[in-house]
Amino acid sequence: MTHDHGTEPTNEECVDFLERIMRLIDNELEEGDCAVVRAHIDTCSPCLERYDLQRTVKAIVARSCSETAPVELRERVRVRIQQIQVEITEE
Ligand SMILES: [Zn+2]
């Protein structure tokens, strides 16, 4: 019996927490569960990394799925359309 990893959660625990981490990010966890998951993330760096990664992915997806495209992008598209129109009329 080794005590090297005495305070570290086992993989099984992390697998169990992963699902709850996803739900925490989706704001689908109950108040009590949130505290439990956050406490685990605080003490488990692999889960913290997963949490950060998932949050980043969510943020990117949310941004790219938002109804209005960023002004910058719309401006680029507008300019491109004008260029194409110019090309067409010059031919
Ligand atoms: Zn963990």
Automatic annotation (TrEMBL):
Pfam families attached to this UniProt entry: zf-HC2
All residue ranges annotated as the Putative zinc-finger domain in the record: 14-47
Full protein name: Mycothiol system anti-sigma-R factor
Species whose genome carries this gene: Nocardioides silvaticus
Gene that produces this protein: rsrA
